[in-house]
Amino acid sequence: MIYYPNAKINIGLNIVSRRDDGFHDIETLFYPVRGLTDILEIIAVDGKLNSIEFSQSGIQIDDQPDANLCVKAYKLLADKYGLPRVKMHLHKMIPMGAGLGGGSADAAFTLLALNQLLDRPLDKVQLANLALQLGSDCPFFLLNRPAIGKGRGDKLQEVSFELSGYWILLVNPGIHVGTKEAYEGCIPQKWESSLETLIGEPIAKWNELLSNDFERTVFVKHPKIMNIKNELYSMGAVYASMSGSGSTVFGIFQTKPSVPDDFKAYFTHVSLM
């Protein structure tokens, strides 16, 4: 079985409140970017049950294999329900710590793939509960359609919302922004209007109406990321923003953008939305 876990962007991200469990309640629109994917291959093989042979290529991951979210997803499912031995290979193309959800997508797609190997496949609710144990963004990738995320991002409301025909340019300068770092200094404050209302406005108005609350703290610490956003607007983007808590900035364009020389040293990706 071969799967293509795709990236996502966050259109608007409001830090609503701090929770008693140490997490934060947020409100954001998750939007899949299907043009940028990892490649995941999973093959069931003869051998000891509940065992995995994992390999990886592409963008190198510094963590030990047991720390990889694909391996964690396998062990989580195997411990609860039992699984055959598998060989799993991940070719990594989505940068890490970038706000694009690559690791979460890999974990969610692993759960979906392994679920097919169970004698009694789990339902959507059961899978979502397992996915949340792997990461706040993981439940979204089980749905993988535009959705408003609330709570930790796991309370999902699918919305009829499309950006078909627009182009997206993703720019990642290779700066790793940890989630804890991004939240430091953030002051939760709920927006006056709901995100559902704001995304219904013309996209040309989003710059005045929508924001990613993490930009307030991350831009101060990493002005290079702020400069990328400004450059995207100078190129003609109708909307530009940091995605999630990572260092990727995306620009949405009406026509296919060219990657300027200023971005040639960075990870960049252009595709239709």
UniProtKB/TrEMBL annotation:
Residues holding ATP: P95, M96, G97, A98, G99, L100, G101, G102, G103, S104, A105
EC number: 2.7.1.148
Transmembrane intervals: none
Gene: ispE
Active site as annotated: K8, D137
Protein name: 4-diphosphocytidyl-2-C-methyl-D-erythritol kinase
Location of the GHMP kinase C-terminal domain: 206-258
KW Transferase (keyword) present: yes
Enzyme class: transferase
Any one GO molecular function term: 4-(cytidine 5'-diphospho)-2-C-methyl-D-erythritol kinase activity
